[in-house]
Design brief:
Layout (H helix, E strand, L loop, with lengths): L1 H11 L8 H17 L15 H13 L3 H14 L4 H13 L3 H14 L5 H14 L3 H14 L4 H13 L3 H14 L4 H13 L3 H14 L4 H13 L3 H14 L4 H26 L1
Helix pairs in contact: 1-2, 3-4, 4-5, 5-6, 6-7, 7-8, 8-9, 9-10, 10-11, 11-12, 11-13, 12-13, 13-14, 13-15, 14-15
């Protein structure tokens, strides 16, 4: 009985994101077993006590379990009115807004949090602000937030990669490569970081170095479409037509290719056919 209660409590008090299918199934199973083992246990109410911030916070988690994201936001905002100093309410509300692609609302919650306590979970908050600003087209503001985050922790790999992305969006490829290099130094065996640096190296025209970066993660996770696409682009520009065709074909098995990749793939096929025709002509001569 205690173990079941602990399992439900753990799922209810996790940071507010929509539960995965497996977590929802686990929570439902635990609740059902609890009800069967203790018939007298009252069922959770759907009503929220609007005068109690802690009750509203728990209610928000209950609504999260039912995928009622609008209900989660309303409960957290009502709780914040009662306890405006409780920064976790703004952060979790921002998380939910981000999941709903409500970037303006998420940014407002984060800015309120910063006004209340700018030091609380500062790097994560700044990172989230940058995500919102990038989505809203405020690229300079996003980069400024990430500069502050990196100043707080120069070796946070996630933030370094996010800042590299922001710099690349502003066509500062040299700066993006510098951040990617630092990230690789901190975490040299991370497939995702190597793939990312490979794409940056491709953008700055360092094709051999890009391919070397992309080959490593391809060995670690050969079905990753981002790595396969990168290899396809690089091999195309290196005029390795057969290699490019193979990588684009593998990438398409996992996700539809965008217009640019499709054109590169088609061009590689055309060049390979042409090259094959030339070889056949030379052999006949």
């Amino acid at each position: 009985m205690a173990n079941l209660q602990n399992a439900v409590a753990e799922l209810n008090t996790a940071q507010i994101h929509p539960l995965s299918d497996s977590d929802q199934a686990r929570r439902q199973q635990c609740l059902q077993q609890l009800a069967e083992s203790s018939p007298a246990t009252p069922k959770p109410t759907d009503a929220a006590d609007l005068s109690n911030a802690d009750a509203l916070y728990c209610y928000a988690h209950a609504r999260r379990g039912k995928d009622d994201l609008a209900g989660v936001v309303a409960a957290l905002q009502n709780a914040a009115k009662l306890q405006p100093w409780d920064v976790r309410l703004y952060l979790e509300c921002a998380h939910v807004h981000l999941h709903m692609s409500n970037y303006t609302e998420a940014l407002q919650e984060l800015q309120t949090l910063i006004a209340v306590d700018s030091s609380w979970d500062a790097i994560n908050v700044l990172s989230m602000c940058s995500v919102c600003k990038n989505k809203l087209g405020q690229h300079d503001g996003a980069l400024a937030d990430l500069d502050k985050a990196v100043a707080g922790d120069p070796y946070d790999v996630r933030v370094l990669q996010e800042r590299a992305t922001a710099k690349a969006a502003l066509h500062d490829y040299k700066g993006a490569l510098a951040d990617a290099n630092t990230a690789v130094q901190v975490y040299p065996e991370c497939a995702g970081i190597l793939t990312y640096r490979g794409h940056i190296l491709y953008m700055v025209g360092q094709l051999e170095a890009a391919l070397a970066d992309l080959d490593k993660p391809n060995e670690m996770r050969p079905s990753d479409e981002v790595t396969l696409l990168g290899r396809g682009y690089v091999k195309h520009d290196l005029e390795d037509w057969a290699g490019a065709i193979a990588d684009f074909a593998d990438a398409e098995k996992h996700a539809p290719l965008d217009e640019h990749a499709s054109k590169q793939w088609a061009h590689a096929k055309e060049r390979l056919i042409t090259a094959g025709g030339l070889v056949a002509t030379q052999q006949q001569m």
